[in-house]
Amino acid sequence: MAKSKKGKASKKALSKGGLYTQEAISNFFVHFGRQPDNDEVLRKAGITRHKLRVLLDDDEIAQVVETRIDALLATPFRIEPSDTPEAVHLKAELDEWYFEIAAGALNALFFGYSVQEAVYEVKQEGYLGLQWIGEKPMQWFEPKNDGRLIYRQDGGGADREVDQFLKFFLTRRKATFEQPYGKALLATLYWLFFFKQNGFKFWAKFLERFGTPILLGKCKDTETDDMSQALLSAHAQSVLSIDIEDDVQVLSTQGSGSANGAFETFNKTLAQQIQKVVLGQTLTSGTDGKGSYGLGKVHENVRLDKLKSDIRLVTPTLQAVVDALCVLNDWKPHKVLLGEKTKPLNKEQAERDTHLKNAGANLSESYFIREYNLQEGDLKPATEPVQQAFSALPHKAFSFSASTKKLSAEQQEVEELTDGQGELQLLEPGQIKALVFKSDGPESLAYNLMQLIPGATQTQFTANLDQALYAADVLGYVTAQNGK
Q: Is there a single domain that holds both residue 93 and residue 140?
């Protein structure tokens, strides 16, 4: 009893905790002031998050970023259900603004979060649609770790929370309670960008200093200052006049080839690292330019994984816009789906399922609908096979007696249509049983039947053969031969 009371007391004590509120929270940054950006890269670099936009001016970073954006914008989308009048209006709105919404939402991948604002107007068709929607400067807004979005007004006005259901649409990437601003991919690239830019500056200075030959003048009677001026003029005019006893030599930089190779390796390594961060990997990374078909397949799979990740990032924002339009127009809810409607057939899975089916496994209808993206009603229920009458010989006019008379096919046709259309004479049950007893297959059965009724027409022979084959199927040739 004491143990039971102790257990109830401990549960009662635990139940006093805030089950519907957060307790481990800093109220200072929730209610007052702006929460600092805890990104370590930005803190060490001494820049703010929105200043990462300067990285997009780099040619290598701009190229890989455009690759991911283009892959997303080329992805088709659809509205479900698609057979309603509202779906037509929603499709028209997204066709017009898909680029702005998708590209603005994908900026959350590069900067951690992005905010878009929508402006509505009444369309000619009578519904409320989008007049404008686009991304606003991210430094104007602060996402809170409780989901709120704060707008920092210009001119020192009071900060206020904005609506995220109809007016503003927030997209965040890998946001946590400690870092509500999300994880910026460009922050990972910052030091690569820093070394790449400074490497080019160092290389430009190197070329400026050692890329051109140095003139060395040796003067005997000429003043040193006069020789220096003459050498400077020679650099500009490529012409130099000196005394007969003076001497001028050209000094070239030793080891410039190794310096060029070192810079090329440095620049190539940075470019590969940038591509790995944004695209996952490259065809030449780690193979020294020697690609292969298998490596190409891996590269393509990584690219598809990145595209799927981008789709999952921007789909909630697109869905939020669709939900806002449905609410404002009092429409039924619709869903926006990105990607192909039917996924490509997995050849390996299809072959595996075929082997399982041949081995006797009964795969359910729900399995095929789920794995092969089918609809209800696409699969018909299995029916019992209908036993077909077997004909061992082709359906053409002939008779066995005609074959011995060397008749042509046309003559056999005439014989079949004239003399051979009498009443069918079927074999007696005893004759059929005896015929089956001495036959061990369809061929021997047809041969023995031909011997039994040599003058039969095509129709008569076919009818008797079908009757004998049916009896053989029922009795079985082996059973008939054994007399069972």
A: yes
